[in-house]
Amino acid sequence: MPVKDYIRKRFFPHIWCPGCGHGIVMQGLLNAIEELEIQKNNIAMVSGIGCSSRIVGYLDFHTLHTLHGRALAFASGVKFSKPSLKVIVPMGDGDATAIGGNHFIHACRRNIDMTAIVMNNRIYGMTGGQFSPLSDVGIYATTAQYGNIDHAFDIAKLAKGSGATYVARSTTYHVTEMRKYIKQAIAHKGFSVVEILTPCPTYFGRKNNMKSAVEMMEFLKNNTVPIGSKAMEENPKLVERGVFVNEPKTEYCDGYDKILEKAYIAVKGAQS
Amino acid sequence: MEGKIRFVQGNEACIEGALYAGLNFFAGYPITPSTELAEHLSVRLPQIGGKFIQMEDEIASMAAIIGASLTGCKTMTATSGPGFSLKQEALGFAVMSEIPCVIVNVQRGGPSTGNPTHVSQGDVQQAKWGTHGDHAIVAVTASTIQDVFEMTIEAYNIAETYRTPVIILLDEVVGHMREKLIIPEQGVIPTIGRLRTAVKPGVDYHPYFPREDGRLPMSDFGDKHRYNVTGLFHDMWGFPTGKPEEIHKLMRHLVDKIDSYANKICKYKEFYLEDAETVLISYGASARTALEVVHYSRKRGRKAGLLELQTIWPFPQQIVREVCAPAKRVVVVEMNMGQVLQEVKASVNNPNKIFLCNRIDGTLITAEDVKQVIRTIQGKGV
């Protein structure tokens, strides 16, 4: 099925700025879904608030555009009540790790079968360029006019430490790789996280001496390396791309099925 | 009424009512004095194939039941004051996106952590205005175990009929006291199911285009129609809009769909009101005290009566106005600083004859408290 068949054309044009990476992620996501041959009716896409969260409105799935940071909590309700649905949660970095940090780590811990796609542009775009938990020290933002003093999260390590059973990182420059990880994540049984570094030329670029979208894409190309790359030894500031975790663990809805069995046996026992 | 007889707490009666109404998804977080709801449902729901999940916090619990309602479940979360504050954000989302769900608030003393194990009725106005922005809401309450059961069923019926979150405002006394409960056979008390759209697959379904009667047939997530749900002002497709005329229309719809049906929604009980000179207005645990005072007064030939409110929001203005008009004096009996008092005063022509009898120390208001206030009003001293 061509990509255009997954789109709600009625609601275009989209709201994203020229040079934004969210459209690249959206296409990668649709390509992955197409390759996995998942029916549109079997996908629920749940998002929070922010530029990236607007993805859901443009796509022809069951879509739920919720509250800032709360997408994974709403999505848990959707998935747990109807486990036959594939649940995909597009999120921003502030959405996932600041206001939604608690929901994020607990979704990882619970290992409920959903996929979080975290679009990390290291800035709050929709509200006009404030620093996020991913901005890191020294970055300039509209609320860090003297330079940021907040240390950054590492989303992949955070997800791994919290118990997610599939964790990968890529960028919007490495489109083929990004699509591969999204595909693996959706196919994975359990809670999966794909962090995608994506450019925000309008706010991050303008404040941090990257004047154009092309410059920002080059930054993603030149400052990320595959996991285990020797370049990391010489320059520890580089960011690793690749699959950090891919392991089986009892999925939450499967675990609940065991509770149903026990409860059923308890009722039968009481009746006999 | 005939049926299975049980001797249960108010919190358990609430569970029985919810299961009778078809509850099959609960998400919660531990908090006193509502915890029995979560504990018992963690046993009961799996026995009927339903879902129970303990979430990471109150916010997530509220969010999860909205998500589950969209797949067609009848849902509940339960909490008390501090948790109710946290749920307000997602409660507003359910209002805006018109998702049926039920929130139980077993009230304790506030503000803040307040008085966790003691009674209060301090969340009446929060139930109405806790979430931001103009909106209508439904809140029900009860003073007996049988009424907790029946009003819980009513809460689900209202939630489904009007596509709205419904708040069940219990209090610590009603939640924890035990009384006889009769659970009738299924079908004796009517239960209302989800109104689903008849629009065929492939035909444009407008999830937010109200029928002539204001109702909006739903389609389950995972079913034949795919549509968008958002907390932003939205058009008939559920897609965000900034158009003034669409914003105005949706705002009116959200308020009118409840307030226009206030007389149909509002439930109350009348005791000895026909010739009452002293009218007591109360609800929840304090209504038990008020009724005791009415019985006491009647035995002594004094014309006292009670209007017990079972629906607090929308506020039952019409019956309050009618009942207060012929009365010489009206006493609102409640365990807060006068949260229903102000609504009663706003509903009547002569607010000067409306008085408050309250207790705010975490103990149940007593008959002596009420009698003293009546004596004072009548100039008989204390």
Keywords:
heterodimer, A: 272 residues, alpha/beta, Rossmann fold, 8-stranded mixed beta sheet, two-stranded antiparallel ribbon, 11 helices, globular, B: 382 residues, 2 domains, 5-stranded mixed beta sheet, 38% helix
Summarize the structure in words.
The complex is a heterodimer of chains A (272) and B (382). With 272 residues, chain A is α/β, with parallel strands linked by helices. Helices cover 39% and strands 18% of the residues of chain A. Chain A is built from eleven helices and ten strands. Chain A has helices spanning 22-36, 55-58, 71-81, 93-97, 101-110, 155-162, 175-187, 201-207, 213-222, 231-234, 252-271, and strands at 43-47, 62-65, 86-92, 114-120, 123-124, 130-131, 166-171, 192-197, 224-226, 239-246. An eight-stranded mixed sheet of chain A has the order 2-1-3-4-8-7-10-9, sandwiched between helices. In chain A, α1 crosses α7 (175-187) and α5 (101-110) packs across α6. Chain A is globular and about 75 Å long. Chain B folds into two domains: 4-183, Rossmann fold (3-Layer(aba) Sandwich); 270-377, Rossmann fold (3-Layer(aba) Sandwich). Chain B has 13 helices and 16 strands. Chain B has helices at residues 10-21, 35-47, 58-70, 81-97, 124-129, 145-162, 172-176, 244-259, 262-265, 284-299, 317-324, 341-347, 367-377; strands at residues 4-9, 25-28, 51-54, 75-79, 101-109, 115-119, 138-140, 165-171, 178-183, 228-230, 268-271, 278-282, 304-309, 311-313, 329-334, 354-358. In chain B, strands 2, 3, 4, 5, 6, 7, 8 and 14 form an eight-stranded mixed sheet that branches. Chain B has a five-stranded mixed sheet with strand order 11-13-12-15-16, sandwiched between helices. The radius of gyration of chain B is 21 Å and the shape is globular. Chain B starts with a strand and ends in a 5-residue tail after the last helix. The model of chain B has no long low-confidence stretch (mean pLDDT 97). At the A-B interface, β2, α3, α5 and α11 of A face α2, α3, α4 and β10 of B.
